[in-house]
Amino acid sequence: MKTYWFAFNEKSEIVVEKNAEDSYKIPFAETVPFAIKQETITLPELNGCPAKAVTVDGELPSTHEYSGLRDSYFKLPFEEYYAAGKASELVSFHTNTRFCARCGKEMVKKTDISRVCTGCGKEIWAPVQPAIIVLVSKGKDEVLLARAKNFKRPYYGLVAGFVETGESIEETVRREVMEETGLKIKNIRYWKSQPWPYPNSLMLGFFADYESGEIKIQEEELVDCRWFNRHAMPETPPSLSMAGMLIAEWLKDD
Questions:
Q1: In this structure, what are the phi and psi dihedrals at residue 52, rounded to the nearest 5 degrees?
Q2: Which of 24, 51, 105, 198 could form an S-S bond across to 16 if both were Cys, CB 3.0 to 4.6 Å?
Q3: Element (H, E) at 79
Q4: Do residues 177 and 210 make contact, with C-beta atoms less than 8 angstroms apart?
Q5: Which residues on adjacent β-strands are paired with residue 225?
Q6: What residues pair up with 54 in beta bridges, in sequence order?
Q7: Is the pLDDT assigned to residue 38 strictly greater than 80?
């Protein structure tokens, strides 16, 4: 039976197959069309067909090439890009989790989403780290946008950060906004979530309203942060990200 083969190299780049019309797809064949160097990982079915995640060993056929996972968003059908995120995380988990943190013995695959220690029997599962991202607005027409130091393009995005131990999601939202911008917020509203395999994150999207304070940026994290009017927006992240989706949703309410 034909299977989707989500294949990665040591740089976590994914294999895509180029069609005659210069479009791309995940390799779809009865057998994997290149050499692989580890056992396969079974993924949820895609379009009613089996799907596997593998690691490549050797050269690719001339009709195949590597793509960065983010870049594949602009090449692949969305459902294939979406499935590739889970595949990437599982390949990384099984490749990099080799030894037990408790006793140091070798860990082996137990299921497609877990590994078990050959010494003490400790079982662990593929990690997911929750993170928040929040669009803060002031009145109807102003939005808080920030440029992070790690942005590769001159985007203005949103305040984001990871949930810390012993912290509620709402506490994380308030803390991250205060730490990065010096502002207090109110009326926090959850919107929706997004798997974000860069790496192993679950992004939780929120809206919030400005309460008080003056902007004082966290210089270790940000290059700039300011209020923008909805009719004079800078370049913002593309729609593949939760930041892009939150901004687009806010702009719809004009």
A1: -130, 150
A2: 24
A3: helix 78-96
A4: no
A5: 146
A6: 7
A7: no
The helix (run of H) or strand (run of E) holding residue 246 is: helix 242-252
* Beta strand 3-8 pairing with 49-55: parallel
Q: DSSP 3-state assignment of 175?
A: helix
Residue type, 58: G
Beta-strand ranges (E) seen in 84-221 are 107-111, 114-117, 123-125, 129-138, 142-148, 159-162, 184-196, 201-212
Hey, how many other C-beta atoms are within 10 angstroms of the C-beta on 221? Answer: 18
Cross-strand pairs, 98: none
pLDDT of 12 strictly over 90: yes
43 token code pair: 């993924």
Q: Read off the pLDDT of each residue in 219-245 and give the average, rounded to a whole number.
A: 95
Question: Which residues, in sequence order, are CB contacts of 172 under 8 Å at separation 6+?
Answer: 132, 161, 162, 163, 164
pLDDT, position 21: 80
Tallying the residues shown for the chain, one arrives at 254
Provide CB contacts within 8 A for 171, sequence distance 6+: none
